[in-house]
């Protein structure tokens, strides 16, 4: 058997992690021959719930699940981890603005960035899911800079999957017919789901869906507001679709993206597409299955797209400015 992969998950007693953990434990992500050790982190107040999750995991008797560690100590949770999925964050409270949430969650990611740099395995990859995930990822990376910048990712894969579904439904084709989708920018309601570079059955999506007004005024806002729509409908935020986004993100890194297609992830910018260096920005990405992303270069945006791109970029710049004091140089 291969060497065990150690996967740390924070917020492990929460709703997203609940769906995530079981799929990782089952062998679905790393394969049937790779043992998994789960290292689950929670706040002290949620340890009893986490204990229950541990028992349920044991009762699944997954052949791939070698061990489960539950802890409220980040040092223990991140010790030797090869993957860290940072889900744990405080939710937005009643009347709170996005900037309040950023300030509230920022310190969590200062601490977790530092601990990851000290404790994680030398090949660690980090996926930040807890919101606001782009800026939380920025904070964690800047505080854990011993880990190379390209190993820090924030999740836009749920947005990507939502956009793929929406185009497929409109064109009345299976989701597999939709390729080359990109979520540019922030995982927020400023994100730009780029229908102009997307393809449906290999043809430009705009040739298959010729109703440009629908694309601009229904598709784009629907993707941007989908999270809120789910909350309004179910009274709780997306959980298993979010977990599925994280699973898809890691699978793409472990197995690679199909040739002729790409996916979406937010990465620390090195200036690609004119984004200031260091902003964690959603890009089109490919992977060869070696744990690394490559940003797809040379895509063109029309005037509508450029405008949307600038809006989401400006939001991320503002978010960075709000947490400037949490970003060591
Ligand atoms: P939840 O409230 O059910 O679970 C969050 C868990 O995190 C709680 O159990 C809490 O005790 C724990 N937690 C809080 N601070 C922690 C810390 N410092 N260390 C360890 N654990 C900590 O929330 P849910 O629904 O699971 O969502 C988790 C996060 O994922 C939220 O920030 C949510 O906004 C975000 N999210 C992101 C998505 C994306 O596409 N990027 C999609 C859906 C959710």
Automatic annotation (TrEMBL):
Q: Show the SUPFAM superfamilies listed in the entry.
A: LDH C-terminal domain-like, NAD(P)-binding Rossmann-fold domains
Do you know which PROSITE patterns this protein is assigned to? MDH
GO biological process per UniProt: malate metabolic process; tricarboxylic acid cycle
EC number(s) stated in the UniProt entry for this protein: 1.1.1.37
Asked if the Swiss-Prot or TrEMBL record annotates the protein with the keyword Protease, the reply is: no
Listed A to Z, the keywords are: NAD, Oxidoreductase, Tricarboxylic acid cycle
What is catalysed by this protein? (S)-malate + NAD(+) = oxaloacetate + NADH + H(+)
| GO MF annotation list | L-malate dehydrogenase (NAD+) activity
Q: List residues binding substrate.
A: 92, 98, 131, 162
Query: Record's superkingdom?
Result: Bacteria
Domain Lactate/malate dehydrogenase C-terminal: start-end pairs: 156-321
| InterPro entries cross-referenced by the UniProt entry | L-lactate/malate_DH (IPR001557), Lactate/malate_DH_C (IPR022383), Lactate/malate_DH_N (IPR001236), Lactate_DH/Glyco_Ohase_4_C (IPR015955), Malate_DH_AS (IPR001252), Malate_DH_type2 (IPR010945), NAD(P)-bd_dom_sf (IPR036291)
Q: Which stretches make up the Lactate/malate dehydrogenase N-terminal domain?
A: 5-146
Enumerate the residues binding NAD(+).
11-17, 105, 112, 129-131
Pfam family, any one:
Ldh_1_N
Q: According to its UniProt entry, what is the function of this protein?
A: Catalyzes the reversible oxidation of malate to oxaloacetate.
Name listed for the protein in its UniProt record: Malate dehydrogenase
Supply the source organism for this entry: Thermogemmata fonticola
Tell me the gene name: mdh
